[in-house]
């Protein structure tokens, strides 16, 4: 595997300060992500997953520690990053083409060739006839594919995915996992996925970062065997190693929950 570093988090720490006081949300997170890797973040609600993504995205600043993408310190939202959230945030009055183009408009990167590129990308994502439709004419799974297209059209080095599949039916969700993984692999993209679905994390990731809370910290990083990752998310679920990885994660989170109960 290519060992080029895409993301480096060193001692990353965030303290929220508001009228109620100071709250240590995440504490001393160390993580290096290499080019082409698919990383999942799992952990109980409130362990700091969104806080970590928001710091990587440059939306909030670390209180302490360092963060760099492709060797450059992140101090504000960067064009190297694409952020896809659970809600698709498509504008209902814009066509699919115009919604995807928004990704380029925000960055002032629209050219004469943009429409052609967008339509080619929509084709690749199985949205051949969607360009001139409106969001309400598409299913939930199709809308998430449009959101993915809007994230990919700017050619980011790193994709941040905050539970993008969680509102979808299982069958659609698995198809979308398959599409996301194969598309990112083909384009050589690096991704960080936040998910509460352990089965999904095992099926799609190279490594899984298990977080604990109070304050948010890394409990363990589970490396998924290559055979599983190579199989793709649907086939991976049938692989003999799959259950072992799932159990390892389950055990780790179970211990975290027990710790809370003390
Ligand atoms: P997760 O995404 O894993 O559920 P978050 O990153 O949203 O966790 O939150 C981590 C911790 O920080 C939680 O204890 C949460 O209550 C707290 N928190 C999140 N956002 C804020 C904020 N804007 N102000 C104060 N505390 C916050
Ligand atoms: Mg969250």
Automatic annotation (TrEMBL):
Residues 7-238 form the ABC transporter domain. SMART domains: AAA (SM00382). It comes from the Bacteria. Keywords: ATP-binding, Nucleotide-binding, Transport. GO terms for molecular function: ATP binding. This is ABC transporter ATP-binding protein. It comes from Paenibacillus septentrionalis.
